[in-house]
Amino acid sequence: MPEVRAEAPGRVNLIGEHTDYHEGFVLPCAVPQRCVATLRPRDDRRVRAQSEQIGDEVFEYELGGEQRRDAWVDYVQGLTWVLAKRGIQVGGFDLHLDSDVPLGSGLSSSAALEVATMRALRAAFDLELTDVELARIAQRAEVEFVGAPVGIMDQMAASLAGERAALFLDTRSLEFEQVPLPADLELVVINSGVAHQHAGGDYVTRRRESEEAARLLGVDRLRDVSLDRRLDEINALPSTHARRARHVVTENARVLEARTCLLAGDLKRLGQLFFESHASMRDDYEITVPAVDLLVDLSRRQPGVFGARMTGGGFGGAVVLAVTAGSGADIAANISSKYSNQTGNDGQVLLPRLT
Ligand code: GLA
User: What is d(CA 153, CA 76) in angstroms, rounded to the nearest whole number?
Assistant: First the structure.
């Protein structure tokens, strides 16, 4: 049977962090780093999966016999497990994955892997799935099989976002709009080198705390708390709940304003929103780490930078900067070398891509 090849990108979220599982707004873009899936259908029900980055190890399982192994192959097993639950038929296959989306950097290597594999499965087995359905299957695999209770931003971004437009997404309705990046805007992404993972504690804790805050405010999801009407009520909650709710509610408002800024070409205000978002993640949601805060502080002092903020789930990962077009490579090199001198960590520049 013929081999198919499909790919999907990593993503950088411009703004709208930890809003997706509250059915709020997000604004991610694709990055050039991507996962490439090469798949050859088999005439039995066996799956053999291999990753270029891991070496010679081949994971094998039988369709219907998916079992969590706490390894990358769980993302693949999660997809075939969800497909079966939805009554969508696929046969066995040999799968080879090759990704240059760095792990644990906040660029969502997992969604790139899931969506690349889903695209390959869709092509190989003629599945009638839209890009949105494909993202939903990928998210369900991650939540229900891998056990990471994530929202839908990353899978939607990997499935639908481009590099020169931000995907403005309403995570409640899944309606989306491509918002072109102004020509004078360039994005820079620098990795702190502090790796995170989301199946574990901190992401889950933040999610739980903010869901408790929603309940205390009498709503199911913080999307339903409007900023102007409810800030007093939010501030009256117990301190931790107040801070968690304040972040999500103000962040949703910032995403809406950031979309307007992109459409109007107002990069100055866009940059301020980045800094405000970072402060909110640092002080209210408490998901930044000192290394990431340092990268944002160094950016603030760098000419040509409109704004900077941590991107992704937090507790490490990368920062995204909005800078004047054409100056990204120099700015990134400057900040990264100051960061390395001060911390001894390697501040790897992920965007602009230097290779
Ligand atoms: C991770 C999750 C997303 C989202 C972000 C935080 O990337 O996968 O669903 O919650 O964190 O914005």
Answer: 19
331: Cβ below 6 Å to ligand 1? no
Dist. CA 215–CA 345, nearest whole Å? 41
Q: Is 154 labeled as catalytic in the residue annotation? A: yes
Structure tokens at 345: 């960590």
Q: Which amino acid is at 146?
A: V
Q: Tell me the torsion sign for CA atoms 84, 88, 91, 95.
A: negative
193/350 Cα distance (integer angstroms): 11
C-beta of 114 in contact with ligand 1 (< 6 A) = no
State pLDDT tens for residues 167-211.
Answer: 999 999 999 999 999 999 999 999 999 987 554 689 999 999 999
Separation of alpha carbons 77 and 72, rounded Å: 9
Show the domains of the chain with their CATH numbers.
4-179 (3.30.230.10), 183-351 (3.30.70.890)
One of 20, 74, 100, 154 is an active-site residue; which one? 154
Is the overall model pTM greater than 0.85, yes or no? yes
